[in-house]
User: What shape does this take?
Amino acid sequence: MEKADKPLKIIDKSHLCQDEFTNNQLTPSVVTNFNCCNCNQNNQIKIVPYKTGFPFSSLYLNNFLSKEDILDFKIATVSSKWSLHLGVYLVKNLPTLYFIEKCTHCSKNFLIVFGLGESQLGKLVCKISGVWLLKDM
Ligand SMILES: [Zn+2]
Assistant: This one.
């Protein structure tokens, strides 16, 4: 799990095996796989709720990711007015986080973005909006 420290350039989107998890699928962690769009290696993603990830807002507040990229690549959507306190761009209007992971084979960087929180009372959801291949930094 790595943090962005410079602007990100998105190249391509990877295919994710499963992107939405609820309640007990979140304990002890969310585990899913994606295929690297560069070398086709199968990589595992592991999200430990409330431990994995950095605030997604830091990406657009630092201009590491443009509003156009966020919306055009469907990384997140403009938050509803009831969720604005969580950020301007959110996944499913949930608290939204990101991290960068390397392909275990070719070491290309991937951006992983997800929303995690209660979508309604007693329903905990983790929705991964996608896994994107990044241009070498
Ligand atoms: Zn790869």
Notes: Residues 36, 38-39, 41, 103, 105-106, 108 surround zinc ion (CB under 6 Å).
